[in-house]
Predict the 3D structure of the following.
Amino acid sequence: MKAKHILVASLLVSSSVWAADEAVENPVTENGVVKVEWQDPSSFRDIRSSGEMKTRFEKRTFEQLTKNLNKEASKILKPEQKLEMVVTDLDLAGDVRPTFGATTNDIRVVKDIYPPRITFSYKIVEGDKVVMAGDEKLTDMGFMYSINKMNDKPYRYENALLTSWLKDTVKPKL
């Protein structure tokens, strides 16, 4: 009888943990002058965690990328302008590989054959007026050679990719 109760309790706990990992269909992150809709993250090329619950990893990744994007966009946009993006694909630098029992977590291997990529549409608005709009498909094939290797900030390659886009594409047109 006791084993039956333990089995029922474990099923309830595992189903509640499973339900807690359900992702929001199209999460939206907002920080300062930047608003990003992450469209269908389950179809993104590579948004895999090496050892964290998928929804937590996605949420943290999206918030960090939005935060850095806001930091850089604030330097470029006029005070009354706002950047709105819809991200349709994200491929983080590197590739997640299993460790085969060495640890309980997988490991993200970053090599130049796994560059960061991001596909999105964007618009810069000023009040109700669209100042600039477009679609982008960014990839940095030289990401391993264009950034300080001593930088240990999370998502440094993806942040560098988006920062370069802001400086090279958006800033000259504004």
About this structure: The two ends are 72 Å apart (CA to CA). Residues 5-21 have pLDDT under 50 and may be disordered.
